[in-house]
């Protein structure tokens, strides 16, 4: 597989696209006036403690208080075989025994503020390096679940045990597969120095404040994404290109020859056809190659995906047609979840299958397709209604939230009033206007979709609802008016 990282540096915005065999697999966006919070460490103050929710709100200096759950405020005891998550029995703890209002506390943002919710934070600090993640407040070793070879896992665990600082933890990242002890020494040294600097900053300065800010999107992409699986790292800004070369020289010098400066007379995202792929990633309907399609709808609590056969009629029988459509849909669904960065609960309504073997084939295909996703996913299985339940870890805002907002006309519902409904609403208001004004002639401007319905009902309005029968009204269409709005002018008063 040919993998490429394409970086577009524009005024006020950085965009990073990850291409896999020329197809857009991920898109990351960071804006100067709205940089992400995940990874930042703050010295905060407990604003309120909620025993009924087993949680607390922490003032970190952000516009909304951060949410700290009891499970993120107590020591972690076990490693959950993931690069960033661990588990602990929090039921034996009470949040009121751990935190008090006004108490100062050091926390790290683990989830971006989304919608009306503030950021989520944890006391389990993680400091990612190139090959390792340092856990200053834990004491265990973990190996990335993506490293599946048992011999390799054991080798890396022994190396980590040898290098692990006392009373701290280490997680060996996926990129470490195949590496030796010498590859980790600088990582440990750098991360320990970074933690020492953060600790020294804890008690220096006002509270709340940020005491450590994670690196920007470009350098995170180098640190976290630019591995031996990536054939090219292409960037369109010479200044940032030189900085990337310096960083690669420090962390993985053999990859320097894969870094390229884009100097063509094209916009970089247009040249790699990423812009059109982003537009597709915002579409509600996504067509499958077989002729079927999926519909992706977002609610406040979950994402619902519906699979349809569309134009695909199959070749042999209905069961095979349904199976083929559903199998292809699993691959596209996994791709869209990753591309759109959809998190939380996901419900998938596949086309009905009566054959239990076919159902299992679809579930297996979905799980296999999700393996390429770096974000943790869990497929819970199929319900009695034939719906597949799954979850995907939510860390940052979804692509649709970053790039779009609710329509000011439909308020995000995707529905607007018909021309006839708008016409009736406008006529009711116009009637009141005409009855309380001395003028006898009026000019009414409405949207072109509303004008015909207004004209169809204007005679009834004048005959039955306007008190002065001599009054007249002229209706004209205007493209600059919203369908539900209007302008009325008293001609006699000019």
Features:
single chain; 494 residues; alpha+beta; six-stranded mixed sheet; 12 helices
Query: How is the largest sheet built, in terms of strand order?
Result: 18-19-20-21-23-22
- Based on helices, strands and strand pairing, what is the structural class? alpha+beta
Q: Sheet bearing the most strands, described?
A: 6 strands, mixed
- Treating each run of at least 4 consecutive H or I residues as one helix, how many helices? 12
The unreliable regions are 78-87
Distance between the termini: 72 Å
Helix content: 25-40%
Rg computed from alpha carbons, rounded to a whole number of angstroms: 29 Å
DSSP summary, beta strand count: 26
Percent in strands: 25-35%
Please state the average pLDDT score: 88
- Principal-axes shape call: globular
Which SSEs are present, and which pair or pack?
Elements: E1 3-10, E2 13-20, E3 23-31, E4 41-50, E5 55-59, E6 66-69, E7 78-79, E8 86-87, H1 95-98, E9 104-111, E10 120-122, E11 127-128, E12 132-135, E13 141-143, H2 150-163, E14 169-172, H3 182-201, E15 209-212, H4 217-224, E16 232-235, H5 238-251, E17 259-261, H6 268-271, H7 274-281, E18 285-287, E19 293-298, E20 302-308, H8 318-340, E21 344-349, H9 356-369, E22 377-382, E23 387-392, H10 399-403, H11 419-436, E24 441-446, H12 451-464, E25 472-477, E26 486-490
Parallel strand pairs: 1-16, 6-10, 13-14, 16-17, 20-21, 24-25
Antiparallel strand pairs: 1-2, 2-3, 4-5, 4-9, 4-15, 5-6, 7-8, 9-10, 11-12, 12-14, 18-19, 19-20, 21-23, 22-23, 24-26
């Amino acid at each position: 597989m040919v993998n490429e990282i394409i970086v577009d540096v524009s005024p006020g915005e950085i965009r990073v696209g990850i291409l896999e065999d020329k197809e857009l697999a991920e898109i990351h966006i960071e804006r100067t006036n709205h940089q992400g919070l995940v990874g930042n460490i703050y010295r905060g103050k407990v604003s309120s403690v909620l025993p009924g929710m087993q949680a607390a709100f922490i003032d970190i200096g952000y516009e909304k208080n951060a949410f700290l759950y009891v499970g993120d405020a107590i020591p972690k005891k076990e490693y959950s075989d993931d690069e960033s998550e661990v588990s602990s029995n929090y039921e034996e703890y009470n949040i009121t025994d751990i935190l008090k209002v006004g108490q100062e506390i050091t926390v790290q943002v683990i989830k971006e503020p989304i919608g009306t919710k503030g950021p989520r934070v944890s006391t389990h600090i993680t400091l990612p390096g190139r090959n390792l993640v340092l856990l200053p407040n834990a004491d265990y070793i973990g190996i990335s679940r993506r490293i599946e070879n048992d011999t390799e896992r054991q080798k890396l665990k022994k190396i980590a045990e040898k290098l692990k600082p006392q009373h701290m933890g280490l997680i060996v990242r996926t990129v470490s597969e195949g590496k030796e002890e010498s590859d980790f020494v600088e990582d440990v040294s750098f991360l320990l120095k970074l933690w020492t600097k953060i600790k020294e900053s804890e008690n220096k300065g006002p509270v709340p404040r940020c005491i450590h800010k994670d690196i920007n999107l470009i350098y995170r992409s180098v640190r976290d994404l630019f591995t031996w699986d990536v054939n090219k790292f292409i960037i369109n800004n010479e200044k940032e290109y030189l900085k990337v070369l310096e960083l690669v020289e420090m962390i993985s010098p053999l990859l320097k020859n894969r870094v390229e400066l884009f100097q063509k007379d094209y916009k970089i995202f247009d040249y790699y056809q990423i812009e059109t792929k982003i537009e597709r990633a915002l579409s509600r309907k996504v067509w499958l190659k077989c002729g079927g399609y999926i519909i992706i709808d977002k609610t406040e609590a979950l994402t619902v995906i519906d699979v349809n056969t569309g134009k695909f009629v199959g070749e042999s029988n209905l069961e095979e047609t349904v199976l083929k459509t559903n199998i292809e849909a699993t691959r596209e669904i996994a791709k869209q979840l990753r591309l759109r960065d959809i998190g939380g609960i996901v419900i998938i309504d596949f086309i009905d299958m009566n054959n239990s073997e076919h159902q299992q084939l679809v579930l297996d295909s979905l799980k296999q397709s999700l393996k390429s996703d770096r974000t943790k996913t869990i497929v819970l299985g199929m319900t009695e209604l034939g719906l597949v339940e799954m979850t995907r870890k939510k860390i940052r805002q979804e692509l649709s939230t970053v790039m779009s907002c609710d329509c000011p006309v439909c308020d995000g519902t995707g529905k607007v009033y018909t021309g006839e409904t708008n016409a009736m609403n406008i006529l009711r208001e116009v009637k009141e206007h005409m009855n309380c004004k001395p003028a006898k002639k009026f000019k009414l401007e409405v949207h072109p979709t509303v004008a015909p319905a207004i004209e169809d009902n204007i005679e009834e309005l004048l005959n039955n609802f306007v008190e002065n029968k001599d009054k007249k009204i002229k209706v004209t269409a205007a493209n600059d008016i919203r369908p539900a709005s209007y302008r009325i002018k008293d001609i006699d008063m000019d």
